[in-house]
Amino acid sequence: MAASREIEHIAAQWLARRESGEWPAAAQAELDAWLARATAHRVAFVRLQAAWAQAARLQALAGAAPDAHAGAAAPVRAAWDDAATARRDAPELAAASLLRADALTFKPRAASARASRWPYAAAAAVAVLAVGLGWGWLHYGALERSSYRTALGKTDEVALADGSRATLSSDSRIEVALSGARRRVELAQGEAFFDVAKDPGRPFAVEAGARRVVAVGTHFSVRRDGADLRVVVTEGTVRLESEPVGGHPQPTTLLPAGSIALAGPNGVLVRSVPVEEAERYVDWRHGFLVFRDTPLAQAAAEFNRYSARKLVIADAAAGELRVGGNFRWSNAEMFVELLEQAMPVKAERLPDRIVLRSR
């Protein structure tokens, strides 16, 4: 909150300085640099400009003032008069400002005859107006609403507006909603790895069904399989929360680096492993699947997440065989050939699937 208020005050100072009529090219360059430094700077400045436009008649009122005291007070009174109208339009105003925030260029206005006196008082009034109009939108309105998805057999890394990065696994989808108060991502399907930018004032929450994974600045993955969830933490600490069941709150689980949490209808199971081992669970980002004494049925299911041509286990004996090693998820055929060479497995290759049975 304090940081956001400071940004608003700085934006108001820039606006007042620009409107004063003394605006050299060096000042414009400084403003451009400040605006380019952060999305929050641009949003604050654009919102103040919009509030300034709502109070456009301040200049006329100041020019008609009968004396110096009235001239100083009129802009402030006018700003409060405009507040009632602007409040009704605040959501639309904020949305319109946001849509233009990254595309606008800021040019100085021509100085008026009385520009040396009224803009500073007016800027102060606009800043007060922005507090009334803008804080709620800044903290609860969306700065970014985006949807990202990957096709089967594809992965993708996307940059989010807050500086975080998300890597989507095969056939995955996330819905992103970032605001001034919170950062929310819904994992609609599949798996995603998050490299979260540190921001203690805005927790980063990944929601998946009845579960929510909350972090401030850390590295972790979330995988959704129907009602089941898997969380792997490779750096920092995250908090795993669950929705109340039958009106009863559920316990919160803290997951430090090296934690692998499996959450399902029967609760949450957490396993602590060395960070190096936890990182193997997210090697899919580099094109690999890593198995360590893994049942063949489970290994086949992992390959099936990345390919339309499925590996089908024909009998229980084949499914219980144990496999190990690093394999490229894009080359299931090579995995099958190695199985046939090293294990009592026979493969039947069909156009849409490969059937594995014990021999």
Question: In angstroms, what is the radius of gyration?
Answer: 28 Å
How many DSSP E strands? 18
Note the main sheet: 13 strands, mixed
Determine the mean pLDDT.
80
User: How many DSSP H or I helices?
Assistant: 10
> Which shape, going by the Cα principal axes?
elongated
**Share of helix, binned:** 25-40%
Beta-strand portion reads 25-35%
Whole-number total of structural domains: 3
Distance between the termini: 66 Å
- Structural category is alpha+beta
Low-confidence stretches: 57-106, 131-140
The secondary-structure element order is HHHHHHEEEEEEEEEEEEEHEHEHEHEE
Task: State the assembly state of the protein chains.
Answer: single chain
Structure description:
The chain is built from ten helices and 18 strands. The protein has 359 residues and is an alpha+beta fold. It has three domains: 139 residues, no CATH class; 137 residues, Jelly Rolls, CATH 2.60.120.1440; 72 residues, Phage tail protein beta-alpha-beta fold. The longest helix is centred in the N-terminal third of the chain and has 34 residues. The termini are far apart.
Q: Main attributes?
A:
359 residues, alpha+beta, Jelly Rolls, Phage tail protein beta-alpha-beta fold, 3 domains, 13-stranded mixed beta sheet, three-stranded mixed beta sheet, 31% strand, membrane, FecR, Two-component system sensor histidine kinase, kinase, transferase
